[in-house]
Design a protein that fits this description.
The complex is a heterodimer of chains A (109) and B (235). Chain A has 109 residues and is mainly α. Chain A has 5 helices and 2 strands, in the order αααββαα. Chain A folds into 2 domains: 32 residues; 74 residues, no CATH class. Helix content of chain A is 76%, strand content 4%. Chain B has 2 domains: 180 residues, no CATH class; 49 residues, no CATH class. The chains are: A mainly alpha (109), B mainly alpha (235).
């Protein structure tokens, strides 16, 4: 590990770029309007980001090769999706997901 | 979820996200401690950088002895999706003061963003500072405390994966995605289903040659663009 001061400066610099990514749109959009085209593009952001974050976790990356499947996460996805459709309750979905993966990992290993 | 936008509703709505934060926050504390960061530095990463998955990248790059510029660039790229999320939420908070907008923006996360998108479907497309700030603060404190706890107990738990907690966030995205799909009246359900299917293909193909730091932002830009094209061509 590098020195503490190097680590702290890296934490601060990373914090600044993250802060700007999050905050600048709020500052700019307080003053300006988005064009209808951009608004339409942004209307897809929620479902695209949420599904991308989900699907990314179903695979392991090996650059240059087909991704391999994370079977534990893939299996745990099934009861989780079912519980979402059946209950529509976020809390139930999260609990079902966690218990599913814990059970699957107990059985696989 | 209902149409209320007060502080106590914010806390109740944010409850499902807490499990995810505890699971991943603990894991972060454990991983960072194992990589050589002390508990104070672990808390500082969570308080100052506050960037979920990018924090894991930050720690592993620190441990590998990378230059500061490279680390900061990687963190920026992973978090560049925040730009799109903030752009999507910000118009709903235009009525609030600049200071409140900055406060909301500085603590916005994947989870509070997703939660707010889902909430919009219950509130006639309105959001306010009280509700979103509460959801943000619940996230911020749960995340920071869990990572501190993880750093403190790091030596005792060697394999946090066993508890299944790292699936909490994935489960939450699945739940919020489904709620979004059935709640969003502007995009037809069939169109959303097609877009989600395309995202699956994009993620799979992207994993072959897009570095993991860039994957989410590349897939998001392509996915939203394809969504627009298909909407205009077929819907």
């Amino acid at each position: 590990m590098p020195s503490s001061s190097f680590i702290i400066w890296t934490i601060i610099a990373s914090g600044v770029v993250t802060f700007l990514s999050r905050v600048l749109p709020f500052i700019l959009l307080k003053k300006f309007e988005l064009s209808p085209k951009v608004i339409e593009f942004l209307s897809f952001v929620p479902i695209v980001i949420m599904s991308a974050l989900w699907f990314e976790n179903l695979f392991h990356q090996q650059i240059g090769h087909l991704p391999t499947i994370d079977y534990a996460n893939l299996l745990a996805t099934v009861p989780t999706v079912l519980s979402a459709i059946l209950t529509r309750s976020l809390l139930v979905v999260v609990i079902v997901g966690v218990i599913s993966l814990a059970l699957i990992q107990m059985l696989i290993k | 979820m209902d149409d209320q936008l007060d502080v106590s509703t914010g806390m109740r709505d944010a409850l499902p996200t807490v499990f995810g934060y505890i699971g991943i926050g603990l894991a972060f504390g454990i991983v960072a401690k194992a990589a050589g960061l002390n508990a104070l530095l672990v808390v500082l990463v969570s308080l100052i950088t506050y960037a979920g998955s990018a924090q894991f990248i930050l720690v592993s790059m620190l441990a590998a002895g990378n230059a500061m510029l490279g680390i900061v660039l990687a963190v920026f790229l992973v978090n560049s999706r925040m730009i799109l999320m903030s752009m999507t939420v910000a118009p709903f908070l235009k009525q609030e003061s600049m200071f409140k907008n900055i406060l909301i923006g500085s603590l916005l996360t994947d989870e509070s963003f997703a939660l707010s998108m889902s909430k919009l479907n219950y509130t006639h497309k309105t959001l306010n500072f009280a509700w979103l700030n509460t959801a943000n603060l619940v996230s911020y404190f749960t995340w920071t405390l869990s990572s501190l706890l993880g750093a403190l107990i790091g030596g005792f738990i060697t394999n946090p994966d066993k508890l299944g907690l790292n699936f909490a966030l994935i489960a939450m995205f699945i739940g919020l995605l489904y709620l979004q799909m059935i709640g969003d009246k502007e995009l037809p359900f069939r169109l959303q289903l097609i877009v989600v299917g395309l995202v699956f293909v994009l993620v799979y193909l992207g994993l072959i040659f897009v570095p993991s730091n860039l994957l989410i932002i590349v897939v998001t830009i392509l996915g939203c663009t394809l969504g627009m094209v298909i909407k205009h061509a077929f819907f």
